UniProtKB/TrEMBL annotation:
Single GO MF annotation: glycosyltransferase activity
Keywords associated with the record: Glycosyltransferase, Membrane, Transferase, Transmembrane, Transmembrane helix
Short name of one Pfam family: Glycos_transf_2
Full protein name: Dolichol-phosphate mannosyltransferase
Span of domain Glycosyltransferase 2-like: 9-166
Manganese keyword on record: no
Upper taxonomic lineage: Archaea, Methanobacteriati, Methanobacteriota, Stenosarchaea group, Halobacteria
Amino acid sequence: MMTGSPEVCVLLPTMNEAATIADVVADYREAGFENVLVVDGGSTDETRQLAAEAGARVVEQSGEGKGQAVREAVAEHVDAEFVLLADADATYDAADATAMLEPLRDGRTKHVIGDRFADMRPGAMTRLNRIGNRLINRAFARIHGRDYRDILSGYRAFTRESFEELSLAAEGFGIETEMAVECVKRGVPVEVVPITYRPRPEGSDTNLHPIRDGGIIFLELYRKAKTNNPLFYFGSVGATATAGGVLMAIYVLYDWIANGVGHEILAIVSAAGILLGFQLLMFGFLADMILTLHREGIDGHERE
């Protein structure tokens, strides 16, 4: 049975968050959110016990990773109309919850992203993480044509119905990126709300690995471009192949003219690279035209 207001479920994925979970659950309950759901990924500390004692419903996910935890929770354990997704490390402020949920309650949007850069407290993010976040956000805006300012933010609010429209498969921290990409692809309205982002309390260790997870996120952005921006996806590979083929052809031609040395194998490889590159560029243009026509058809159908 659900407890508290049926309208909002505060969803907290956890993994060894004993240092902060009790305070985080208490903060949301004091803010008026009695329906706090903790989905634990197999913590080896007292996370589950402390969360339950603080008043949260606690379930243990069947798989691994934050992405899997969120999908499983919404599919099997959430009946509320709205979901407020936050991290359990006390970096987000429960006082921002009302502002996060307001656009949903007003019907202005279906997905809300909390912008951590609007009020980032000193020490909340390392210099390396800041640079990585900026690069990822710029790449997202370039590839997918939307500027959501902070697509890696873990503070989200969304309607359960809109979440079920998204095709999500990411297991770990790539879930935030995947949700942003899917919102663009599915035409889900998104609003960005400024929030406060605080440093993790002492004794609380992060589960995020900047280099590894950053690489995964970049690959996810590029992989998703295949269906959301095919011109970029195929065009970038095509342009690289063409450029490589042209450079190789220049070298072959120069060595033949200057030194009388022929490179038949390299000449074949360069021709193949140029041909492949042009084919990929043409395929990218055609795929982009088809996608544009498809989207225009959907928009026209919705207007009718």
